[in-house]
Amino acid sequence: MYNDEQAADFIAQFCRNQVNVKRSLPIRSSDMGVMIYLSHHQKAKVKDVSDFFDVAGATVTEMIQRLEKSGMIVIHQDGQDRRVKRIQLSDQGIRFVDETRVYYLDSIRSIRQTLGEADFERFISLIQRINESRVKP
């Protein structure tokens, strides 16, 4: 049985290994999370992103500004409410997410191969259970 300290170390190492799947990312891993979100939610509002990641709007605004400056996203004025800005991936951002996804899927396949099918299914089931327990009511 692992104590909490050991478990925290193992989980932290696992997370670092997953973040470092593609070390040469030209953007921060947190920015990559926003890009993945936008790949599924085109023309999102900053508030949508903020709510999804449960972070302050100012934090998301900072990320959005970095991503826009790097050419990964574009920002549009909302057609209905000029105070609202809509964000979406640029063509460059779409290509980048698609290319990066390949590395992450390879990593998942490697985990599946390492664990074997039964343990992998259990692993995914446990992650899903944890994720569901973290969802706000």
Quick overview:
With 137 residues, this protein is mainly α. It has helices at residues 4-19, 29-40, 46-53, 57-69, 91-115, 117-134; strands at 44-45, 73-77, 85-89. A three-stranded antiparallel beta sheet has the order 1-3-2.
Give an overview of the whole structure:
Helices cover 67% and strands 9% of the residues. It has 137 residues and is mostly helical. It is built from six helices and three strands. A hairpin with a 7-residue loop joins β2 and β3 (85-89). It has a single domain (27-134), classed as Orthogonal Bundle (Arc Repressor Mutant, subunit A). The model has no long low-confidence stretch (mean pLDDT 86). It has helices at residues 4-19, 29-40, 46-53, 57-69, 91-115, 117-134, and strands at 44-45, 73-77, 85-89. α3 (46-53) crosses α4 and α5 packs across α6 (117-134).
Query: What's the CATH architecture name?
Result: Orthogonal Bundle
Report the CATH superfamily.
Answer: Winged helix-like DNA-binding domain superfamily/Winged helix DNA-binding domain
What is the domain tally? 1
Q: Determine the number of helices (DSSP H or I, runs of at least 4 residues).
A: 6
CATH fold-level name: Arc Repressor Mutant, subunit A
List the helices and strands and how they pair.
Layout: H1 4-19, H2 29-40, E1 44-45, H3 46-53, H4 57-69, E2 73-77, E3 85-89, H5 91-115, H6 117-134
Antiparallel strand pairs: 1-3, 2-3
Helix pairs in contact: 3-4, 5-6
